[in-house]
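Below is how a single chain appears once it has passed through the pipeline. First comes the sequence as given, then the structure the pipeline wrote out for it. We keep one example in the README because the format questions we get most often are answered faster by looking than by reading.
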Amino acid sequence: MATVKLLDFWASWCIDPKTEVLLSNGFSLQAQSLLNGSEVVSTSGGKRSTGIVEYSKVVLDAGRCRLVETVSGRSIKVTDEHQFLTPFGWKAAEMLQKRDKIAILPVEESVKFRAKNKMIISEEDIKKATSDRMKVNVYIDELKRLSLLPLFMNNPKILILARLMGALFSDGNLYEGKNNNYREISYALGQIEDIQEVTRDLNSLGFGKVHVSKRESQGEILGRHFINRGYTIKCLSTSLWLLFKALGGPVGDKTDNAYLLPTWLMKAPQAVKKEFMAAFLGGDGPKVTIHLQQRKYKKPYNHLLINDLEFHKKSALVENGIKLAKQLKRLMEGFGIKVRKIFSEEENYLRKDGTRSAVIHICSAKDFLTGFNLSQKVGYRYSRQKHISAMYVGEFLREIIDLRKNWHNLYKQVKNLADKGLGYRRVSKELGIKPLLAYQWIKGRDYPTTPQHHLKFPTWLKEAKSGLDDGFVWTKVKDVKSIYLPQVSRITVEHTHNFIANGFVAHNCGPCRTMNPVIEEIEKELEGKIEIIKINVDEKQEEAAKYGVMSIPTYIVLKDDKEVGRKIGFTSKEELLKLLNV
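Resulting structure:
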């Protein structure tokens, strides 16, 4: 009886090494820099979860790959077999078609962290922040042990410190008890997910002991009674308290104290400023929303809403509040968030101490680009509610802005052809647009700012969210192109087998892992009749070359060591059994 062997050629070919992979701590890292054991954002059972990288490696000679582009301007470079999540399950890049829906998680864009080795905080700075009753050497030793002292700008932990500092300047507090030598760092947050995010950041700095409690406050506006519920998280580490104070964190009631953003922050790299602003906006920042604005005799249009960024100062400190607002304006404008004006507004009621306070307003522009930059260039930390809303709005605006960009480019092509002497009918035929539109553009009676699309946010959002967990959305494939990549990063994530790459929900191992259950079933059914040999093409390249394997997975059937059949790519159990013919 002939000996039958099934050679299963497989590999974990994956993505372009420069692809940004989303980590569970909210930062992104290029695929080529991922380490085994890294925690990445993943999805399990339709819900956002965490996966652990169990294998990560850059492989040479990747060969033919695919560039996948979406209608919202996103793109990713992957191997042909790399799979994406669609409404009908996982689908390989080479099988994707225009207008196919694929899942993304539209988190804000990452900013590269590059910083000089410049000292921010020294031992002397910590000593200046202490009082006579404090055992300063104990706290200095702890900060040294945690690699937080001396603190340099290029210390990776500066990103987390900046994030926690941003929250301190908004919904956080550095409290100091004058009589009992008591100090605490506290944050008032809305949802338990926000508490978990702060806890994770404190733990990553080395401070594991936190206290969480529920809070409730009541009030009345225009005769309507309301109840606010949320959580408070406290960290009682004096060493961390001193570090935040030395970094310029405001101590005590922010309404009653004069303070400004620290100089080191204003001169920090953009990645550090982003983390600070994202956490600040998570507390005091405006929520970005879109609703349909109705108009008489015209179709409704997408109206962007961005509330004012507000904070309070007692009347005697309004000037200080305006200076602080101007600093925040500088940071915001560094990310393309236009600020129209800054002003103060006196409040009518007296405070308990008999003084009055004022509200400082920072009014941003209401244009789509500002809304996009706010939601996708900066985003929100420690506020899940704002974060989810911003992801939806940001992805919608990304699609609208890309449409407008394409429309403007088309307008320029029309003008260029007209300048060359072509009439509007010829221009219409050359560019595939309506003759009337070509005529209006040539004559200057219409402009590309006119929104030539029918996307309305409520309808778009309903379709984009359908069947997905909070934050995930469907977007449509704009194009899939064949490209060449000299190398790719192989990534395997345990349990969930997927991760977020450039915003795309991507499977980590293509059809190779998907086929595993099929191969196992065949092995059980044909036990004793066939021998299944699994061959990793990256580890056994000579074997792959011997059989001319160019794609994975490839299944080759041998009888008496002679090839009698092969299948490439995802294959059904029935097709493999037919191929084996045992």
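The chain has a mean pLDDT of 89.

See the next section for the split statistics.
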